[in-house]
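<instruction>
Derive structure tokens from the sequence
<entry> Chain with its tokenised backbone below:
===
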Amino acid sequence: MEAKKILALFFGLISYVAQTQEFESSTPLKSTGDIPEEFTKLSSEKYREDKAGIDKDQKRSEKKAQEKFYLESNFLIDEFLLSGLVIFNDPVSNYVGKVADELLKDDPSLRSELKFYTIKSPEVNAFATDNGIVCVTLGLLAQLENEAQLAYVISHEIVHFKEKHSLNAYVESEKIDKGKGTYNRSSLEEKVLAKSFYSKEIELEADEIGVQLYLETNYSLTELDGMFDVLQYAYLPFDDIEFDTTFLETEHLKLPGKYYLKEVASITGDDDFDDSEATHPNIRKRRKEIHKAIDEEDNTGRKEFLVSKEEFSKVRDIARFELSRLYLVELDYASAIYNSYMLLKDYPNNAYLEKTIVKALYGLTKYKNQGILGRVHEYYKKIEGASQQLYYIIEKTKREEFNTMALVYAWGVKQRHPDDEVISEFTDAIFKEFVFEHKADMEDYYKRAKKGEAEQDTVKMEEIDISKLSKYEKIKLKKKKKAIEGDEDFLKYAFVDLLKLDEFEEAFEKHMDAYEEEQEYEQLSYTDPKKRAQVKAERKKEKLNRRRGLALGIDKIVAVDPFYMKVDQRKGATIRYVASEKAQQNFISRLEKNTRVASLEMEVLDTKGLQTSQVDVFNDYAIINDWLDEFLFHEDEGMELLISDQENVQYLIEKYGTKYFMWTGVLAVRETKGSGDYWLLMASTIFWYTLPYAIYNIAMPDYDTYFYCVLFDIESGEIKLTVKDFFESRDRDDILNSVIYDCFHQMKTTRKSKKE
């Protein structure tokens, strides 16, 4: 018996170590294996199949509404599936599928119609589409307490699919909008309420039928109530752990007491909110209805786990680890820190988690130093629970104080993981901010450190025999200790130990030299020969670029999911989905043709033309899409930052053999005839000679074509080329070929020197 216990402990330890090592090098969740058909099949094909299945005996208005639903839903769902947010054949999706197997083990026919995927989002959500796709977010999985709660979520979504709730809601919404039947005299407000009422009815039906499906299993009934707790407190982190105020401190860097809240805001979690215009009933109503359904049921023998408790725990941890990365991509830096902080309780010194915190501190430092912290940070009074303390520290510390604290923490992480180049890169970037933004001088910190070290030595109470001190010496000692604990200039102690390190000193000197060099150049007069020559060369280059275009000398680019959309404004800016899909395919062929003419090599990440085996392209697109989202947010704020997922971007550069990635697209619009055409016709009755022109103008349709092309250096984050063109004409072949070739020519060509 004792031997069995030892073996169990041994194998349990091996499992724990293996899992710890797995999370140590945690990377973004990726799809694996063959790409499912619903990702590769063209939206137009799906639409035609669905359209063919519409009941022809229905009312014409209902058939039209269903046809419109299938058109829009197929194209929009496919856009979402191919957005880079959805993953398949991964450990999380596979586990969700196993729980669905348990729920539907007596209904294999229904199970075969359903596909389960994971959404890379911190939001707590799940949904089902009309064609059997059920998606669960990582945010939801991170919050769950057990498998039974997940089983109920899945059963609820299965009902949405089985009862065709998406289609029915769309058809009903069309009736409401067009004032059909009982809605013919409804006001706008009444229509809004009618949509809300219908949506809530659907949700309650999914709860009612879903719980019956759940009851057919052996899952615990008590966990149904727990699932509604998850929904009620979904706005909070996955746990509420006190934020240790010493987490960002060291022996020599102690934050003054003014930066600590006496108590954090209590958690409210209103479950009886006003749902009169909401799509879902409030939590209290849903909980009440579920209680009615299960009050008479026996919970004896029912379990929280039927598939695997161990697999659930692993999947939930995967979701929680991934949240740290997702928060970084969304620039929710405080959430990234707190999420990682909680995980460090179970995974101490984990390189991935500590790296995440360093990246988040870097982002906060950059925005705080520029005085726009509010762009990436929620006001601390809006935060409930233990994490409010962290938000308070971030908000209330002064810029230099926070930058110093970030640098000290980052340097500690760098020392613990000396071989991690990414940690070193972000630590160095924080160091540069510290020197450049606060004009930090190493000599000043040497003096501060010596003084601080001396003061701290005098107040190490445990090393002093107080009984031997006089009354006055005791008073002085207490005053010194109190002064240090609440020191306004607490930064003077920050680098007491670090300045003894050669590497820290060298980094300090490097950034000081760079800062001084920059200042010297900026202070140079325009009359200085060196500066005048440089400015003259830059102006000459700009003039040439304006006159002859850029000459980037690039050999290879990657085109990322080229875009094409056709819109008909005559029908209320309706997107012509099928025509757009065909035009997009032709657009890619046009791009490839023009690269050959320009002698420019190009690879295309085309999500609409994926083959079953191209899962690597699917994953690459997800990486570059995250990069673009994060980059554009910083760009909108006028900020230049290291991208949080830069290590995976470097992988793309090496894989494709280029750092130049292009986003390009066309918007082709057919316009409505304006009032100007009417007045032109009226004028022709007076000025008869304008009549032929007026007739021609009215007879001929109006078109606008918008073209854009943006080329990024994804290594440096620099925009190398931006072209935006507008034409008051149809998207003709000659026009598109001209602007496309011009872009590629500027990318490929090099400027010849005078000697040549």
